[in-house]
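Hi W.,

Here's what went into the run:
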Amino acid sequence: MSSGSGIDVRYVARLARLDLSEEEAVLYQRQLDRLLEHVESLQRLDVSQVAPTAQVVPLTNVLREDVPVPSLDRAAALAGAPAREGPFIRVPRIIEEQE
Amino acid sequence: MSAPHEWSATRIAAAVNAGEISAVEVLRAQQAQIERMEPEVGAFLSLTAGLAQEQARRVDEAVAAGRRLPLAGVPLAVKDNMCLQGTVTTAGSKILAGWVAPYTATAVARLLEAGCLPVGKANLDEFAMGSSCENSALGVTRNPWDLRRVPGGSSGGSVAAVAAREAALATASDTGGSIREPAAFCGVVGMKPTYGRISRYGLIAFASSLDQIGPIARTVEDAASMYDVMAGHDPMDATSLPRPVEPTARALRDDLRGLRVGLVREFDTKGLGVEIDAVYRRAYEQLAALGAEVVEVALPHAEYGLATYYLIAPAEASSNLARFDGVRYGLRVDGGSVQEMYGKTRAAGFGPEVKRRILIGTYALSSGYYDAYYVRAQKARTLMASDFERAFAACDLIACPAASSAAFEFGAKGDDPVAMYLMDYYTIPMSLAGLPALSVPCGFAGDGLPQGRELPLGLQLVAPLYEEARLFGAAHAYEQATRFGLDRVPPVLEGVR
Amino acid sequence: MSGTVVEQAYEAVIGIECHVELKTVTKMFCGCRNEFGGDPDTQVCPVCLALPGALPVPNRVAVEHVVRAGLALGAVIPPFSKFDRKNYFYPDMPKNYQISQYDMPLVSGGVVRFRRDDGSEGSCRLTRIHLEEDTGKSTHMGSGDGRIAGSTHSLVDFNRAGVPLMEVVSEPELRSAEDAVAFLEYLRLTFLYLGISDVKMEEGSLRCDANVSIRPVGSTEFGAKTEIKNMNSFRSVGRAIESEIERQRNVIAAGGRVPQETRGWDEANGVTHSMRSKEQAHDYRYFPDPDLVPLTLAATWVDELRHGIGLVPIVAYERLEHACALAPAQLRQLLGDPALARFLLATVELHPDDGAFAQAAANWLLGDVLRILNERGTSIGAQSTLTPRTLAECAELAMGGAITSKTAKELLERVMSEGGSPKEIVQREGLAQLSDPAAVAQIVAQVISANAKSVADFQAGKENAIKALVGQVMKVSKGKANPQLAESLLRERLKQT
Ligand SMILES: [Mg+2]
Ligand SMILES: [Zn+2]
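Here's what came out:
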């Protein structure tokens, strides 16, 4: 765990598709640095022999049979859509770019 | 004779099933109470009068046709992060303001099936992220015990509604303490089941591996009845437990004989102040007086709980909340491109706490930091779970505080997120381990308030995985013997502001 | 020209990545139908639209299809597998993460053995096969040509969102465009034989990208690779790879350096062009999907799937090649229709190691049977009257001289309409060929006396006249006389006269 300059708020905000104002960037930088300082305590734990826990309840192979159930009708499916065109959802132009 | 809005859920259901009162009458009384309380308390983000009316009629018809429903005619508040078809469902966020759910969450559907009347959608911290309900973007909920104070969070609206008799029952969700801490703050019973016990289908996700729905009620018996209705396998949730559910309402008991109750060495209450410390000491003594054998247990990794939680929960949240993008539903702020629209929509739609958690979670998963943060936190989670396993080898239940303080005043935690996060110090370890736990009222603290205006405190009881029946049974014995949650009502009910 | 020098010095290194839509009744994580070409946004539900609160549950058949694919390609099925989230934003991806598999795919390794056009053998190992979900479909508007560049907005149809998708990744072991195409063809055929995908490039159920680099012959290092996209037929895959190899050779011959990038194939101009020039590492923030639980592939489950694999194309090829002497083009034709290949193999296996029989069966199948099926607008898989056994009987009767070829063809038509055993029909209706010299001689005598003109013509040296006389013998015998026998008896008799 690096305790150096820590979180690059601008980079992370871009990954998260979250525009930040100047003030927000400064505020979150400070608050997140403080939080990271707190989580640094995990560094003290020896976890070299420990397996990670993704789910506490030990289930495996929870699968669905390949049997259809009715879909939503289009009116219900698209009722909340901010912009539509015919049977489609409309979005502004997509710029091809790197993630 | 008291009005039906003051009755327990058990009493309402019995009366409605017996034909002594109709669900429509119960609803009328309940709606009058909501009208009186809402201007003071603000528990609801929206009222669902039409739906409740319709459901009341359906319940009365069913009863007239000879059916007996476990929660016949019981008014229910639904936390607004649970979908209820045809109702505005917002998760307390501007990004979902006005969004009408086209389907119903499994747990809520089961409650309706059991005869509940959905009176409204209860306020919460935005996306259930918070411990005070102050993070709701859409409303302010006040603590019925002191309107200058927060109801706790994130299930603030649910607990305030039940405490102020605006509903007999409320659904709530708990990720790191969001049921137990507000239940303690508002003097009601709040229970978080074993992870996987109640379906998460239709619960707007915060952190998938931690989120659990649970009941809020004024009595342990009511909470148990509500749990019994909601619990059980749901094929729509791949993390839902397939094992059968032992009906807990029948497991309620009057003493604690034969039970070993563990007190956690690391959870010393001296640091909580003399007054609160005394309340918990007395609570532990009462457990012993009820016949429990009190033993000391250790949770050596509990101190890492917050750090672990504040990596895992935001990491999952950062991904879960990616779907709020302005494309298919909810808020859209237009931009010259899809990418611009994403950035603007999410900037305008999410509040500061949600943004903070998205940022920290994105960071914890990002290239170069994943192993150091996320994986390490998951390993710490393993240590936490094994702590509990060892502890439960020496005891049957654990008793500890449900929160680090009584309800605090609005704005008291300033802008230091870590100070707020410390509220969940006692609840997070159980969430990480997936254990069932509940908060039951255990006394009052003055916290500088005038005589007679004390604030409720909650005793947290914790059981091993799947042992909900044991948990409710013991909580009932404690509640009936101490009556902290049964005899006093919040001042707002008596017109005290 | 310097190009020849470069050609000798450099070899191509090619790896293939394919996305294959699986043939299931429902989508990967919800019960919506998995059907191509439905009305836009009609095959959607809370899960595949990523409505708030919806949860995924994996489709058992999709998991099994991927395991079948792995087993058919001789891969290892690891005992443990899981689903991960691949996080990135795109408007046709509802959750803004794709449920995929990162470090624990369902299938590890495997090999695709293939035959080139000339019949020679080749192979390429697989890295992995994993299971994920497809995205919706965006239509780009306003650019005139449907391309994303220059578009003003896009329209999204979510019917395809959540369709089960299998990603197959090869090792970079292919050395020519021809091999890459042959590899793809055998991969496609394998999935076709397993019945796990429609594998239609034109419908997008098979999509592939090629990674291409070149390096000095003898080198074991890899050069910088380019990833080629937008190829919509096997022919374009071959052309694109060839063109890209050529381009890279020219860059290096001119002293340049090939940058790592993504390039698009321009079908009309026959060249690749740079799609993303500034290559930056993606930060997908993979992590285990907390909404899903791990998969354990027990040996019994895997064995059960293994037993259901049946015939795979490369084995069909080898067995057919061993059984009968067919041209590579004929073998390809047979392999392309799994039902046809299975039919022929089932037929030839009725007389193992009888090359002449196998050859005859193949000729019947590829000749008259296919012709009749074409005339009737059906296929071998769709018809049920002809079986390998009855085809074998036709071939046997004809080969042994028991019936004439004319009778045989009529018999085949009949069997393909009504079914039944050709041998029984021949016996019952006396259709056997007349090969008894005495009986045929009698008819010959009759014909000679009745056709004085033809006899005279023949004796006058008109060789053709014999044909007319044989024809008369066949007519009198109702087609049953052995025509060779009839002719030799005729010649013998006419010489004597
Ligand atoms: Mg993929
Ligand atoms: Zn669906």
